């Protein structure tokens, strides 16, 4: 499994690339705010995509590569992500239709930048719809609604951030568990596998 280092305007990023022969496409996934690319739901999605003959890149944002746990402002994340996907498209994923996405914050980044990355579809794991306990509501549904390409959201049925509704191009699969999506990785994998098998890319 090659690890690709990518220079971005926000520092060095890292992509863990898992290749398959005769790939049908590629899936590029980012991590959550405080986590990494070994989160159970990311691993489950990776394995499902590999089974469906998609090459997979699990991406570490520059702040994580630099050893920081707290993410920078959204604009910094988005700038780095666009550079990362562009670099992968020009090299490791050349010629492949690309699905972008990620876990929680990583899914938000993918949604906000979908036009710039030219993605064929979006995969969100545990989309953080509305942070619980805030005095001022902060609903992120507009970020999902702005995406017009096929989208899958895999959400824990007890996620305290809530469950987004389906949309014109958006499927929502609920699985056992909360925002961590750790309770049933097999259910996460099954939802991703079914969606990819439907020919979204």
Report on the structure:
This protein is α/β, with parallel strands linked by helices. The chain contains 7 helices and 8 strands. A hairpin with a 2-residue loop joins β1 and β2 (11-18). α1 runs parallel beside α7. The chain is globular, with a radius of gyration of 15 Å.
Descriptive terms for the model:
201 residues, alpha/beta, globular
Short recap of the structure:
This protein has 201 residues and is an alpha/beta fold. Helix content is 31%, strand content 25%.
- What's the order of the H and E elements? EEEHEHHEHHEHEEH
Report strand %.
Answer: 15-25%
Radius of gyration: 15 Å
Which sheet architecture does the biggest sheet show?
8 strands, mixed
The assembly state of the depicted protein chains is single chain
Alpha plus pi helix count: 7
What layout of secondary structure does this protein have?
Blueprint: E1 3-8, E2 11-18, E3 25-30, H1 40-51, E4 54-60, H2 62-65, H3 74-90, E5 98-103, H4 105-112, H5 114-117, E6 121-125, H6 141-145, E7 151-156, E8 170-175, H7 185-197
Parallel strand pairs: 3-4, 3-5, 5-6, 6-7, 7-8
Antiparallel strand pairs: 1-2, 2-4
